[in-house]
Amino acid sequence: MKAIIFDMDGVLVDTMPSHYEAMKHAIEENTGIELDRKTFYLLEGMPIIEMAKKILELKGYETKQAETTGLDIIAQKIGTRKKQIFLEMKRIPESFKGVKELILENLGDCLKAVVTGSSKQELETIIEHNFGKGVFDVAINGDEFEGKGKPDPSSYLAALKRLEIPSSNALIVENAPLGVQAAINAGIKCIVVLNSSPLLPLDFEGVIINENIFADIKMASGLLKDWCCSSNYDNRAIP
Q1: 16-89: what fold?
Q2: What local confidence, expressed as pLDDT, does residue 236 receive?
């Protein structure tokens, strides 16, 4: 049996603009720094506090407040505020074009898993709204791996264990460099779908080859269907 493991945010559903907006406002409120989209997308997958701290370091945030309070405390405040803003949005994102057809109709011979850093409540609400209950054989949320964001492979390894298949029989669909690195660290083959991301293939240089990067999930659906449904499909086609 084979399995496809999907990252959720930015792969199945268009949540990333809302996450970016929330983080952008939280950082600006606490530091005055303006967060650009590309920096945020490059760091996607990190635990929120770790991401906030990394952004401050990249932006050279050096003020008396940082010296006296410490970046860790400021990052904690940003993380708390980001979560608050995101919840206040009360948005349930829609799936990307072609995703419902792929998940509900074209991968019948494959096990399907979804792995996300989002909370259990967010995961269940989004998946039920877009796909219905019981569509995914395994669903892993960020509450299970608090503080262990990508490139830590823990969540993907847990999915593999619950699916009860070897790594050679799994394929991960990601949208960010840290997610690809997590797949590599887990020893699982991976492809990238960019969807609405501002990232380019060049941003994945040294992490994954261009042939395994697709403009959107609809463009990748043929490969996913063939890999999933054909017993003779060569895994080496996804190096």
Answers
A1: DNA polymerase; domain 1 (1.10.150)
A2: 44
Q: Can you give the pTM of this predicted structure?
A: 0.92
Q: Domain spans of the chain?
A: 2-14+93-237, 16-89
Q: What confidence tens digit (pLDDT) does each residue in 55-106 have?
A: 998 988 865 455 556 788 899 999 999 999 999 999 899 999 999 999 999 8
Q: How long a stretch of residues is the chain?
A: 239
Tell me if 96 sits within 8 A of 216, measured CB to CB.
yes
Q: Which two tokens stand for residue 99?
A: 């995703």
The H or E element that residue 5 is part of is strand 2-7
**List of residues 6+ apart from 84 with CB closer than 8 A:** none
For the stretch 201-219, pLDDT in tens is 999 999 999 999 999 999 9
Q: Within 10 Å of residue 225's Cβ, how many Cβ atoms?
A: 19
CATH number for the segment(s) 2-14+93-237: 3.40.50.1000
Q: Which amino acid is it at 189? A: K
